[in-house]
TrEMBL record:
The protein's name in its UniProt record: FCRL5 protein
The entry's keywords: Disulfide bond, Signal
InterPro entries given in the database record: Ig-like_dom, Ig-like_dom_sf, Ig-like_fold, Ig_Fc_receptor
Family annotation (SUPFAM superfamilies): Immunoglobulin
Domain Ig-like: residue ranges: 7-109
PROSITE patterns: IG_LIKE
Recorded GO MF terms: transmembrane signaling receptor activity
Gene from which the chain derives: Fcrl5
Keyword DNA-binding belongs to the record: no
GO BP term (any one): cell surface receptor signaling pathway
Gene Ontology CC: external side of plasma membrane
Amino acid sequence: GWCPLSPTGAQTTQLLVEPPWMPAVLWDRVTLTCQGSGTAGATTWYKDGQRWGQEGPDHFDVTENGTYTCERPGSGLSPPVHVVNATAVLQVPTRVLLEGDSLTLSCRI
């Protein structure tokens, strides 16, 4: 999903989630895509705060629950994405919402 930039505007790496619902659910065949400036194919992935590969592809299919972030040279670390392994979950769209917006919730069992 898309996350807003930090207040300083320094953070430009984004971690997109497909399908675009949060929290992401492991049994949903989740794909994470790291977007940012810098060299394509030089993405460093982190899982649960630990380096989980370096200079790899900019996207992959998730097979384990956990908290994922990515880093692109020159554009920094992305906000985290949580992938859960739950039997029931209440999800919201990953898009940015403003006060007064309509919100669709999804209850997944």
